[in-house]
Amino acid sequence: MGTIRPFILSIILMLGCRNIAGDVQLLKQQALEYFRLEQYGEAIDLLEAARQEDDQDAEIYYYLGFFNHYKAYDSRPLSSYDENYSRQVFAYLDKALELDPDYGDAKYFYGAECSANGLQAMQNRDLEKLKYFYQLAREKGAFPDWLVEFGLNLLNSCQENAILFTGGNADFDVCLYLQLQQKIRPDITLIPIGNIDRPWYVKFLKTGLENGIRPISLKLTDNQIEDLHPFKWKTAEIDIPLSDQIKTCHELSPDYRMTINLEPDLLSSREHAKTQEEIPSLRTYLSPQKAMLVQIIEDNFAERPVYISGLADPFFYEGLNDYLQFCGLVHRLLPTRLTETGRDIDPASLEKLFRAGNFSQLADLRKNNIPRINSLIYHYHRSLLILAGYYYEKRQSDKIEELAEFYREYLAIGFDPEYEADCLRYLERLDQVVKEGTSE
Length: 440
Description:
Blueprint: H1 6-14, H2 20-36, H3 40-53, H4 58-73, H5 83-99, H6 104-123, H7 127-139, H8 145-155, E1 163-166, H9 169-182, E2 189-192, H10 199-207, H11 222-226, E3 231-232, E4 236-240, H12 244-249, E5 258-262, E6 266-272, E7 281-286, H13 288-300, E8 306-309, E9 324-326, E10 330-333, H14 338-341, H15 347-353, H16 378-393, H17 397-411, H18 417-436
Parallel strand pairs: 1-2, 1-8
Antiparallel strand pairs: 3-7, 4-5, 6-7, 8-10, 9-10
Helix pairs in contact: 2-3, 3-4, 4-5, 4-6, 5-6, 6-7, 7-9, 8-9, 16-17, 16-18, 17-18
């Protein structure tokens, strides 16, 4: 990928008398340092030099796929990008997997590259190409059985016709694969929070994709969407419209208002005063992402349930926390503040999650581990412990015992033995305290 820059070449020449294995390791270390400094071209040149020394090192090909993927999609726009560039990324990752078929992180980036191509297919409204890339990701191991099961459990945590805001590749991609290729829960509209600052994507959500992606309601014009930008903003109270059905279901008065304090999430170094009498202060802004998140909720919540994935960064939905009920893998948006109702968790949703059939593939994680995302399974553990805490407050010893037995059989798969042992000790201690009739 390009010629080697002179100062990079000088580093290579300085390696002179080292053994080849040492040369390759040093080149990889140098490449990682340049990557961390966001000097992507230099990092890639070093890896290409390492490949000349050892063309059977799977890690070199993995980093070449990773770095080139990052350069194209996670940095500034790459002017030379085209389909050939993407094919080269796939070629690097294919080689990494040829040399090491169990290379979990290479599988992850294969899926990420498929996802990037899928976004372009959405932009071009090409359903067949979109489905192709998500099937390819599955075939290459980016969606192993345990992850597919996690996606299924995530989708089934939502009510019918829901909108689900997701965090990123880990949850969005596997759920979209299930919708496109297995026709599972197409009633749900998946919205990755990280993408809703892109005008084309917001317009895409407004229209959807026939037989593929269900649209959402948006009261903004196309011109308003095209004009997305950071908006001048100070904290303000926003009303979320509610339907009569929601008010009846939640036993709310006809004049009840759902209000959120929408705070700015961007800060500049520019001082500004709106009036001559006002003391200048640092200008604050509302990011396009947060603006669109609230807009989508405003325009849809009266008609459709809204959920946020447990994998989403809380930074993006700060201000909604008072209305988000914990349902295990997801948070459900309620029309009332949790402090007003005491409904901070939904035990029924948690009990629905912890059924034997929902964990038949979890042990597959031991064989098909993907280090970059395997931590998402801890959402299972955390959810079970929170449910146990609920039973503890209700002094339901029998329920805690059932959870402990369930944990031993389905969640304690030997993936993280020390953590699993700690969880079991915690469950046993809760049960003991309840039986002793004491509190801690």
